[in-house]
């Protein structure tokens, strides 16, 4: 029994054939540069990587090529017992507080929500449309925002003029919800407790933090879009919105330029010249003072969120690190936790240095808060949610 998980971007299709029970990724692949002069396809099955350069005009051609690879290289989808296709969709607005079976109506709702996620939903929709045409199994959409539909109004509503906010559906929707939900559930399983006040730090190229009480999200750092919150690879995170007015009035920048500046040319890249955390560390270790400063800003922002979320929840039981940086960057974790020592949060330095794919504790046993590393797996979470929907 398997689920094909599809994450369709504006010029890419990422896919994984997942066994939702064992959690194994049976085949993994990526189509890139769709619609460009040459597209690139990578398909990995049984440890062997197969790569192709060819012209793929659109997502339909891309997915057709991938389905051919499943036939030629394997695994054959019918023999792999494909039960559903799970699609990652970024924005579910207030319509979706969980996964949904794709019907024409659901498909149209995803399209209607595009103005709230113009970079993502139209691209996600392309994947849904072509996959529905080519794969005759149930299709399920899993939304990045769904886990955050439980946010209380005081956390979700901005102090923006109510009429304007409501007319244009402006509120905090959050993002990375599939990961925050998966990780917070793992923390509950690992500790054997459902009654936890948790902070989940998803630190990848995009980065977000959530506050979770008894399994429900009560706050999160991403807002109307994934731009708000932590310092990210190329995004500013939190910034005074008046900077936009200033750069428009004084700098003469238009909306497109500002969008690009804030989303693509800022964050670690804008501060240190590199968006990859490993490259930032390499620069900082070589004495680059802007790179060191970028790390300081990154850590400062994290500490600020952890403190404020502990206050919002009225306590804190666990902090979970996840995603590329959270799972692999022991130096950064150490700097963050060291800043929290005055609250009795203590890192076990040896445990922090151990590399592993398993969930593990990195705080000392006498730490006031249990600090954990929890490998995230959004594809598996999507596959399991898809199975839940089709077996309802
Ligand atoms: P993700 O978006 O979850 O794939 O995470 C990507 C980020 O994780 C990039 O900034 C990488 O530099 C970072 N990353 C991956 N491995 C390491 C590592 N060993 N140390 C520090 N950062 C890492």
TrEMBL record:
It catalyses: acetate + ATP = acetyl phosphate + ADP. One of its GO terms (biological process) is acetate metabolic process. Pfam families: Acetate_kinase (PF00871). It is found in: Cytoplasm. One of its GO terms (molecular function) is acetate kinase activity. ATP binds at residues 14, 202-206, 276-278, 324-328. CDD domains: ASKHA_NBD_AcK_PK. Keywords: ATP-binding, Cytoplasm, Kinase, Magnesium, Metal-binding, Nucleotide-binding, Transferase. One of its GO terms (cellular component) is cytoplasm. Catalyzes the formation of acetyl phosphate from acetate and ATP. Can also catalyze the reverse reaction. Homodimer. PANTHER family: ACETATE KINASE, ACETATE KINASE-RELATED. HAMAP family: Acetate_kinase. This is Acetate kinase.
């Amino acid at each position: 029994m398997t689920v094909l998980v599809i994450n369709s971007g504006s010029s890419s299709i990422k896919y994984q054939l997942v066994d939702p029970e064992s959690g194994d990724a049976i085949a993994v692949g990526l189509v890139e540069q769709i619609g460009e002069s040459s597209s690139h396809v990578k398909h990995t099955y049984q440890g062997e990587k197969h790569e192709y350069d060819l012209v793929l005009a659109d997502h339909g051609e891309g997915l057709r090529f991938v389905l051919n690879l499943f036939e030629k290289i394997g695994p054959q989808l019918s023999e792999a017992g494909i039960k559903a296709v799970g699609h990652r969709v970024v924005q579910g607005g207030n319509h979706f507080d969980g996964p949904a079976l794709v019907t024409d109506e659901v498909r149209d709702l995803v399209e209607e929500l595009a103005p709230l996620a113009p970079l993502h939903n139209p691209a996600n929709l392309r994947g849904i449309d072509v996959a529905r045409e080519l794969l005759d199994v149930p299709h399920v959409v899993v939304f990045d925002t769904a886990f955050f539909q439980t946010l209380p109004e005081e956390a979700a509503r901005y102090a923006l003029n109510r009429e304007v906010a409501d007319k244009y559906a402006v509120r905090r929707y959050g993002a990375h919800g599939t990961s925050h939900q998966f990780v917070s559930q793992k923390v509950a399983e690992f500790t054997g407790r459902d009654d936890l006040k948790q902070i989940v730090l998803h630190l990848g190229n995009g980065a977000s933090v959530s506050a979770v009480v008894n399994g429900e999200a009560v706050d999160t750092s991403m807002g109307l879009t994934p731009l708000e919150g932590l310092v990210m690879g190329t995004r500013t995170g939190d910034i005074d919105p008046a900077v936009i007015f200033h750069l428009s009035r004084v700098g003469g920048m238009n909306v497109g330029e500002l969008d690009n500046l804030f989303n693509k040319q800022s964050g670690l890249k804008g501060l240190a010249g590199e968006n990859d955390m490993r490259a930032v560390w390499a620069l900082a270790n070589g004495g680059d003072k802007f790179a060191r400063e970028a790390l300081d800003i990154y850590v400062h922002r994290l500490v600020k969120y952890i403190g404020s979320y502990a206050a919002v929840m009225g306590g804190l039981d666990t902090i979970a690190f996840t995603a590329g940086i959270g799972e692999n960057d022991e130096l950064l974790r150490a700097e963050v936790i060291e800043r929290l020592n005055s609250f009795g949060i203590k890192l076990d330095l040896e445990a922090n240095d151990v590399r592993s794919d398993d969930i593990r504790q990195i705080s000392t046993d006498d730490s006031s808060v249990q600090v954990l590393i929890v490998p995230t797996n959004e594809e598996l979470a999507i596959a399991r949610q898809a199975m839940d929907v089709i077996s309802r």
